[in-house]
Design goal:
Strand content: 15-25%
Structural class: alpha/beta
Largest sheet: 5 strands, parallel
Radius of gyration: 21 Å
CATH class of the largest domain: Alpha Beta
Order of helices and strands: EHEHEEHEHEHEHEHHEHEEHEH
Distance between the termini: 64 Å
CATH superfamily of the largest domain: 4-hydroxy-3-methylbut-2-enyl diphosphate reductase, catalytic domain
CATH architecture of the largest domain: 3-Layer(aba) Sandwich
Shape: flat
CATH topology of the largest domain: Cobalt-precorrin-4 Transmethylase, domain 1
Length: 320
């Protein structure tokens, strides 16, 4: 059966936080003498990492791998105070590319702890964002990943408890867990809706719409991208077959047998050129009906980190 239609989710791909983080690295390459070090992956996409590495960026797992006095960039997922202290000890020039939405969660955790509240963080314990948030107030915070864990968790004072969430989880991802926590702890301070990353929610909403009208959904993104993996799961929950692919080379012709319509989206850290390569793949198969399915328009932008803005200002002053 011939594929007759290709639907592209909109919004898809880069969010404002990812755009900002990649811009930070690109600008640092022009403003500072190299090499430029980045702690962890700046964003979770292998193509982005390979592209920046080819330009001379050195990715490391921990601060102790960065030479004394060098330039280091923190990834979009944020870091703990322990990491910041280690960077100060080595006299590193630090550029913080943490997504502002992640920074907001860090600040909430610090505020709740300052109020003497126990904090429950809904998220994946090993995700870099969660590790960084926990590091802010390790004695006051516990991580919950499931309804079962929410039903078992113990706190010192049920009357003084707050909950926050990993930003890259959608509203649907956290609802059942939050409901379980509210049932157990009626006085709990729940997160506001803007604790959930707008981009995560928008992309999940878009893929739900897409999956209703397609037999197969391809999600472009790397396997270590939490939001990309979740997009695949959301598509499957709507009844569509779905595959997570890094790029067009991973499409298996067998997947297309018996398929009339295909949907394509991309995780928040996947560049648009990967989507267009998939579009070309289907054009070469003779698919002419290609349509964008727009669910919501995104206009969010974030300002550059102040340390980078200052450096740019200094550069412009000296060149005048």
């Amino acid at each position: 059966m011939k594929i007759s239609k290709l639907l592209l989710a909109k919004p898809r791909g880069f969010c404002a936080g990812v755009d900002r983080a990649i811009d930070v690295v690109e600008m640092a390459l022009t403003l500072y003498e190299g090499p430029i070090y980045v702690r962890k992956e700046i964003v979770h996409n292998k193509h982005v990492i390979q592209s920046l590495a080819a330009k001379g960026v050195i990715f490391v797992d921990e601060i102790d791998q960065v030479p004394e006095g060098a330039v280091v960039i923190y990834s979009a997922h944020g870091v703990s105070p322990e990491v910041r202290a280690a960077a100060a000890t080595k006299h590193l020039t630090v550029i913080d590319a943490t997504c502002p939405l992640v920074t907001k969660v860090h600040q909430e955790a610090i505020r709740f702890a300052g109020e003497g509240r126990s904090i429950i963080l809904v998220g994946h314990e090993d995700h870099e964002e969660v590790v960084g948030t926990v590091g802010e107030v390790p004695d006051n915070i516990q991580v919950v990943e499931s309804v079962e864990e929410a039903q078992k968790i113990q706190v010192s004072d049920p009357a003084r408890i707050a909950v926050t969430t990993q930003t890259t989880l959608g509203v649907d991802d956290t609802k059942e867990i939050l409901d379980a926590l509210k049932e157990r702890f009626p006085m709990i301070i729940a997160p506001t809706s803007d604790d959930i990353c707008y981009a995560t929610q928008n992309r999940q909403t878009a893929i739900k719409t897409l999956a209703k009208d397609t037999d197969l959904v391809l999600v472009i993104g790397s396997d270590n991208s939490s939001n990309s993996r979740r997009l695949k799961e959301v598509a499957e929950s709507m009844g569509a077959k779905s595959y997570l692919i890094d790029d067009v080379s991973e499409i298996e012709p067998d997947w297309l047998e018996g398929v009339e319509s295909v949907g394509v989206t991309a995780g928040a850290s996947a560049p648009e050129h990967l989507v267009q390569e998939v579009v070309e793949y289907f054009k070469n198969l003779g698919v002419a009906d290609i349509e964008e399915v727009a669910v919501v328009e995104e206009k969010v932008t974030f300002t550059l980190p102040p340390e980078l803005a200052r450096k740019m200002s200094e550069r412009s002053t000296t060149t005048v």
